[in-house]
């Protein structure tokens, strides 16, 4: 016959009264310790524990509705985004590390009639040569094959020629632009001057919220620089 189990301490129960009394005493002592820990709290300014009648719930400060819905949904800055793109024509954008926020700003430009050229700054080479000139590309030769060199048309000019008549322009969206040098950023800032239908958006870093600045300011160019 299986022995009964004491539910207070999860041990086999005994028929004698002494083990049961010892089990109940241990449970009462444990509940007393837990109650003392709940009412002990350090008093502010003195650094020593003080007894209170109760401890309030722990609340985290700095939490707003944006932590549950999304900061980009609460900021009505899409209109300012469109006006800054048209005014400065080249912007440096900073997005949160988790990503996803920049999609709303990209979609709003797409609704305006812009087409996109997505590039990464890593492996881009010389931006002036890649975007506006015929440039060579050497494919990997895998060790035993001869080294070949292929020539590609300018990335920007090729896509400008292929735009439909009702297109508003071409947006060159460059990710990881933080690896570009200052001279390369300066060329990207001046690219809309060379190609009037081109807009440049460069992801130059990360921030806690979506923010942007004129690319000329980031590249060290003055606002009235024309060439």
Would you write up a description of this structure?
The protein is of the alpha/beta class. The chain has a domain of 154 residues: Rossmann fold (3-Layer(aba) Sandwich), CATH 3.40.50. It contains nine helices and eleven strands. The strands form four sheets. A five-stranded mixed β-sheet has the order 6-9-10-5-11, sandwiched between helices. The protein has a two-stranded antiparallel ribbon with strand order 1-2. Strands 3-4 form a two-stranded antiparallel sheet. Helix 8 links the parallel strand 9 and strand 10. The longest helix has 23 residues. Keywords: Membrane, NAD, NADP, Plastoquinone, Quinone, Translocase. One of its GO terms (molecular function) is quinone binding.
Question: What are the defining features of this structure?
Answer:
227 residues; alpha/beta; Rossmann fold; two-stranded antiparallel ribbon; 9 helices; 11 strands; 37% helix; elongated; plastoquinone; NADP; quinone binding
Q: How is this fold's topology laid out?
A:
Blueprint lengths: L4 E2 L4 E2 L4 H23 E3 L6 E3 L14 H4 L1 H4 L3 H11 L1 E6 L6 H10 L2 E7 L6 H6 L2 E3 L12 E3 L2 H7 L7 E7 L6 H13 L3 E9 L4 E4 H5 L8
Parallel strand pairs: 5-10, 6-9, 9-10
Antiparallel strand pairs: 1-2, 3-4, 5-11, 7-8
Protein name: NAD(P)H-quinone oxidoreductase subunit N, chloroplastic
Keywords: Membrane, NAD, NADP, Plastoquinone, Quinone, Translocase
InterPro entries: NAD(P)H-quinone_OxRdtase_su_N
């Amino acid at each position: 016959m299986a022995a009964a189990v004491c539910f207070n301490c999860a041990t086999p129960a005994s028929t004698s009264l002494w083990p049961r009394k010892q089990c109940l005493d241990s449970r009462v002592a444990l509940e007393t310790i837990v109650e003392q820990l709940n009412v002990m709290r350090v008093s502010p300014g003195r650094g020593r524990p003080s007894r209170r009648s109760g401890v309030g719930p722990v609340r985290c400060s700095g939490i707003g509705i944006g932590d549950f819905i999304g900061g980009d949904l609460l900021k009505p800055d899409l209109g300012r985004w469109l006006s800054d793109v048209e005014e400065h024509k080249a912007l440096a954008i900073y997005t949160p590390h988790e990503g996803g926020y920049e999609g709303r700003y990209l979609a709003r430009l797409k609704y305006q009639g812009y087409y996109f050229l997505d590039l990464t700054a890593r492996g881009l080479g010389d931006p002036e040569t890649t975007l506006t000139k015929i440039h060579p590309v050497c494919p990997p030769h895998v060790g035993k094959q001869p080294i070949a060199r292929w020539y590609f048309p300018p990335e920007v000019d090729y896509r400008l020629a292929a735009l439909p008549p009702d297109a508003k322009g071409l947006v060159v969206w460059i990710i990881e632009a933080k690896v570009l040098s200052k001279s390369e950023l300066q060329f990207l800032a001046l690219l809309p001057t060379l190609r009037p239908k081109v807009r440049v958006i460069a992801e130059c870093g990360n921030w806690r919220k979506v923010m942007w600045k004129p690319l000329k300011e980031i590249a060290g160019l003055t606002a009235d620089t024309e060439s």
